[in-house]
Amino acid sequence: MSRRVLVLGAGAAGLSAAFAARNSGADVVLVSAGAGASSLGGGAVDDVPWEERIHAARVLGSPIELHTLPPEVVAFSNALGIWDLPDRAPPPFVATIAGRLRPARGRDKGLLDLGALRGKRVLLPRAPRAGWDADAIAATLSDDPLARRTGLRFEAIDASILRFADEARISDGDLAARHDDPARLGWLAERLREALTSDARLHPDEPASAVLLGSWLGARAARADELSERVGVSVGEALVGVGSAAGLRFDAVQRKFLDTLGVQRIVDRAVSIVRDGDRLHLTRARDTTKIVADAAVIAMGGVAGGGIVYEPPEHGAGEDLPARGAIPFALSIDAPVVLALARGPLDVVASMHGPELDQTAWPKDAAPSTLEAVGIHAPGGRAAPFLFAAGDVLAARPRTLLEAVASGLRAGHAAARPA
Known about the structure:
It comes from Polyangium mundeleinium. Keywords: Flavoprotein, Oxidoreductase, Signal. The protein is of the alpha/beta class. It has 13 helices and 23 strands. The chain is elongated, with a radius of gyration of 23 Å.
């Protein structure tokens, strides 16, 4: 009889845990109430924090290199179908909406890869949208150290890329959804070809090699490759901080991915998980029927994704001081786990009011911030008997997509094996 594995969370860690557990022969039930941190990502796919990659190259005096990824990480990415993970240099470079150029191990297929465009001109169409100042973004990108080192130049141009008046005001996601329509994508391609023709007359000896747009090219799937083919040069999106079209595309692929795996999806909020002998029982918010499983993987995200919540003692205080000190962080569900930082399991703090977040909330030198490091204490991914953890909910692990995938794969395989 197959083991039944419960996965909590439908982000990168949860999906990879379900992928591994199914490949190990387990029946999988995935419970998720909605979007998490993976749905908030901008589309850069990192294995290590990108700042560390730049710092290492600078210290070693060598080009930015790519590390070989484990085969199962690549297999998961291929099954998901929305990421490009190149297996050879140069690494992808993506341009941020804030005017930075930064490396990544991979990218959502909608983002423009600037890594192979050394010494080329990239055009940014002007558009009257909040957050899209093509002139300012182009000037800042051109002055970025990576751009100067690789000879990349960014220039703003006039182009009619908004078709209706409301497109100056609607969200990036709504504009991205309009480009899921083939006719609308064709209209945009015509406008970009016209802009490129005008630019070629001004720069006959140095035609543009790419067009950079906002996070607007498809909500159900990335339309950048199709648009590039129609336009004749590479076209893609810039990386935005939170709430991008890449996040919408990640959400859109979840159901198809789980259906292909044969994973049962339950849309509900987990409330508690308890052990009863050699079985686990999950209680949900909207359905009183408990889900029984042989093992479970908690992949609900960290502080950013809502899996870990900040609950200092003073939140429960009235006019007086809190009645007692308490650990200021908690898992968002009741579960038999221990929370930790890099130093080890958390304990009651000396102050009645929790840690000094003004001192610890942000990274300092090589030390990660408290908000990034706090999570479940789970050596090797095992948080308790029959209970595993993966992704940003783990303590003191890098908060990157490929780290979440790798930990999800480990947890999924471990949960599918008999104890």
